[in-house]
Amino acid sequence: MTIAERVRGVVEAHRGERGALLPILHHIQEEFGWIDPQVVPVLADELNLSRADVHGVISFYTDFRSEPAGAATVKICRAEACQSVGAERLVADAEQVFGVKVGQTTPDRSVTLDQVFCLGNCALGPSAQINGRLHGRVDRSRLVEILAEGNA
């Protein structure tokens, strides 16, 4: 089955829903791990939208990826509560450790570094979500330790 056929199947599962584009994009990202630019014209055609409309939604929402993520995804909270206890230092340390900026993936695809603006773990900041698992009181050494142990 081709990517286009799989995408059409996802669209069919959501056809008739109001505002179907967002649930469709979430479904595609869940299935493929990212939203390949190849699917934009398929979605535009199936949903009677312009390619620009589809691309605009994908690029606006930071949860949608236009390229595959790394094996580990690190999201560091940068909301005010975490900032007040060292989140900016943690971001700078993470960028140095991984050699990429926020929003990028390491060349070997081992880590994707992202930011969020509240993980709801304010009392234990700075907080990070690593492969979907929440961690509090994260500093440079704890971040490296979590990834090294695979305890994400």
What does this structure look like?
The protein has 152 residues and is of the alpha+beta class. 45% of the residues lie in helices and 13% in strands. The protein has a 5-stranded mixed beta sheet, with helices on one face. A hairpin with a 5-residue loop joins strand 2 and strand 3. The two termini are 33 Å apart. The model has no long low-confidence stretch (mean pLDDT 94).
Which secondary structure elements does this structure contain, and how are they paired or packed?
Blueprint (H helix, E strand, L loop, with lengths): L2 H12 L6 H12 L6 H9 L3 H10 L11 E6 L2 H4 L3 H12 L5 E2 L5 E6 L11 E3 L2 E3 L4 H10 L3
Parallel strand pairs: 1-3
Antiparallel strand pairs: 1-4, 2-3, 4-5
Helix pairs in contact: 1-2, 1-3, 3-4
Helix run count:
7
Oligomer: single chain
Q: Give the low-pLDDT segments.
A: none
Estimate the helix proportion, in percent: 40-55%
Instruction: Average the pLDDT over all residues and give the rounded result.
Output: 94
Shape descriptor reads: elongated
Kindly name the structural category. alpha+beta
Strand order of the largest sheet: 2-3-1-4-5
SSE order in H/E notation? HHHHEHHEEEEH
Main sheet: strands, sense, barrel: 5 strands, mixed
Pfam families: 2Fe-2S_thioredx
Organism: Saccharopolyspora mangrovi
Keywords: 2Fe-2S, Iron, Iron-sulfur, Metal-binding
InterPro entries: NADP_DH_HndA-like (IPR028431), NuoE-like (IPR002023), NuoE_N (IPR041921), Thioredoxin-like_sf (IPR036249)
